């Protein structure tokens, strides 16, 4: 029986197992299964090799392993190589193949509400999800600025991605929230109840007619999205991005297109 999983630390909160198992069942692939596996950073390379040698067909990779997934792979797709992060690994005869469906998943969600081309975007964070967001927005024609609590990390991300793309933006330390047509939070702020307006360079009163994306998800809209929506912004939540990227991963593993509505129902 082919097995799939999401690897992260922590990972107990993940809704990927419910979502992906529902999609597999709807496709008639009842002999497949999907689970969550908590792996500490120090154990990640060994655990991936162990799973690849066993009965796993592949895994999703989440915080904090997306950049380590690139280092663990034998083969990189173009997106994974340029972005420098992977969220999907395939265990095949070629070895471990790294893909990045975060970029496509984000754009699949954002394009439902707005076209990024010609807009200025602010990406908050400097991890693997941020790298995917910066690259994807740039590919869609947006000018992208990057903020991170540690300014050096934002500058490093920007420099590395600028070597393969003309981002047209800059790493910023004190962004002016109102000038951005798209704001994307890729940090984990809010996952454990943190106040985003204390941790991020955003103000409740400064939202306008923007698109605000928060990759953090929970039972209700995040505090960031609730405030943005109240101020008139268009919002995209982390669950829709999870569905979009998860569908792309499942198609890579199985060769079958899953039903997005089945996945949405399961994840919510």
SSE diagram, text form:
Elements: E1 3-8, H1 16-26, E2 33-38, H2 44-53, E3 56-61, H3 66-72, E4 75-76, H4 78-83, E5 88-92, E6 95-99, H5 102-110, E7 120-124, H6 128-139, E8 143-147, H7 151-162, E9 182-185, H8 196-199, E10 211-214, H9 223-230, E11 234-237, H10 238-254, H11 260-267
Parallel strand pairs: 1-2, 1-3, 4-6, 7-8, 7-9, 9-10, 10-11
Antiparallel strand pairs: 3-5, 5-6
3D architecture notes:
The chain has helices spanning 16-26, 44-53, 66-72, 78-83, 102-110, 128-139, 151-162, 196-199, 223-230, 238-254, 260-267, and strands spanning 3-8, 33-38, 56-61, 75-76, 88-92, 95-99, 120-124, 143-147, 182-185, 211-214, 234-237. The strands form 2 sheets. Strands 2-1-3-5-6-4 form a 6-stranded mixed beta sheet, with helices on both faces. The chain folds into 2 domains: 3-100 and 241-267, Leucine Dehydrogenase, chain A, domain 1 (Rossmann fold), CATH 3.40.50; 104-237, NAD(P)-binding Rossmann-like Domain (Rossmann fold, 3-Layer(aba) Sandwich), CATH 3.40.50.720. With 268 residues, it is α/β, with parallel strands linked by helices. The chain has 11 helices and 11 strands. Helix content is 39%, strand content 19%.
């Amino acid at each position: 029986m082919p097995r799939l999983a999401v690897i992260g630390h922590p990972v107990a909160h993940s809704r990927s197992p419910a979502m992906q198992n529902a999609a597999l069942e709807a496709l008639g692939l009842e002999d497949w299964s999907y689970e969550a596996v908590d792996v500490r950073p120090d154990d990640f390379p060994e655990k991936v090799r162990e799973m690849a040698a066993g009965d796993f067909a592949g895994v999703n990779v989440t915080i904090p392993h997306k950049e380590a997934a690139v280092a663990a792979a034998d083969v990189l797709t173009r997106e994974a190589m340029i972005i420098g992060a992977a969220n999907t690994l395939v265990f095949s005869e070629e070895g471990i193949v790294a893909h990045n469906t975060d970029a496509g998943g984000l754009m699949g969600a954002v394009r439902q509400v707005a076209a990024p081309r010609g807009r200025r975007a602010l990406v908050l964070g400097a991890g693997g999800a941020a790298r995917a967001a910066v690259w994807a927005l740039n590919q869609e024609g947006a000018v992208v600025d990057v903020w991170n609590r540690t300014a050096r990390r934002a500058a490093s991300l920007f420099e590395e991605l600028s070597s393969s793309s003309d981002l047209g933006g800059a790493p910023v330390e004190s962004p002016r929230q109102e000038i951005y047509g798209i704001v994307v939070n890729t940090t984990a702020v809010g996952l454990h109840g943190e106040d985003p307006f204390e941790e991020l360079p955003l103000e409740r009163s400064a939202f306008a007619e923007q698109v605000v994306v928060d990759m953090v998800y929970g039972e209700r809209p995040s505090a960031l999205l609730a405030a943005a929506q109240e101020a008139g912004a268009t919002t995209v939540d982390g669950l829709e991005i999870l569905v979009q990227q998860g569908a792309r991963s499942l198609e890579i593993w199985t060769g079958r297109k899953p039903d997005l509505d089945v996945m949405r129902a399961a994840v919510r």
